[in-house]
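Can anyone check this?
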Amino acid sequence: MQQYQISQSQRIQTFGSLQIYNSDGALFLKGEKIRSLLAYLILHPRILHRREMLADLLWPDSPPDRVRRNLSDLVYRLQKIAEPGWLKIDSDTIALQPNADLWVDVWEFDDLITGKDPGSLQRAVELYGGDLLSEIYDEWILAERELRRSQYLSALEILSTHYESQGELSQALLCTRRIILTEPLHEPAHQTYLRLLGRVKRFGEALAHYEYLRKLIRAELSSEPMAETHAIARSLARE
C-alpha cells in the first residue's frame, strides 16, 4: 500500500498524535491544555464556541474566574503559533476556520470514509496512523476516537473483501493484518487471515498463527478459539 501524499505546507496531523507543520517545518505546542484546546477546535471546525463552554471543558472543577483567565492565556499562546487566518476570535467566541491553505488529516479522513468506492476507503485507511489524538486524555475525546477507530476497522473489512474478490490476495492479507494489529482479539479477522493464508498456500505460517491466537485467547480471555476458527485450522493442517 502506498502512503497517502500531502502537498500542503500548512497541515495538522491528528492520528497517532497532534503534529503541526507550516512552511518552516514543525511547530511545537507546549502544554497539555493548549493541545487539548486546539484538538477540540479541530474536531469542531467553523463553529463559534463560547469561551465559557471551552473553559468548563478544559477545567471542569476550577472556579469560573480562574478558568476564564486560563483560557485567555491559552488563546493568546495559540494565536502566536497559529498561521494567520486559522483562528476567528472575539471577546465571547473562538473558532477554527478551515481555508484552502490548511490541510488536516481527520478532515480528509472524514470526507473519504463516507465514500463507497475502494479508492476512497484505501486513502482513508492510509491516513489513519494510529488512534486519534492518542496523547489527549480528556473525556470528550473518547467518543471521537472510538468513532474513527471503528470506521477504520470497517473500511479495512470492506477492502479485504474487495481485494479478495478481485484476486488480490496479498492486499487482502495486508488489510486483514491491520485489523488484527488494531484489534488483537477480533477473532473473525483472525479467521479471515487464516483462510487467506491457506489460499496463498502459506500453510505453515497459518498454523503458527493459529497457535499464536490460541495462546492469546487463553491469556487474555481464559478461553479457547471459536469452533469455526478451530475448523479452519484443521482444514489447513489436512492440506
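Reply from J.R.: I decoded it. Residues 10-103 form a domain with the Arc Repressor Mutant, subunit A fold (CATH 1.10.10.10).
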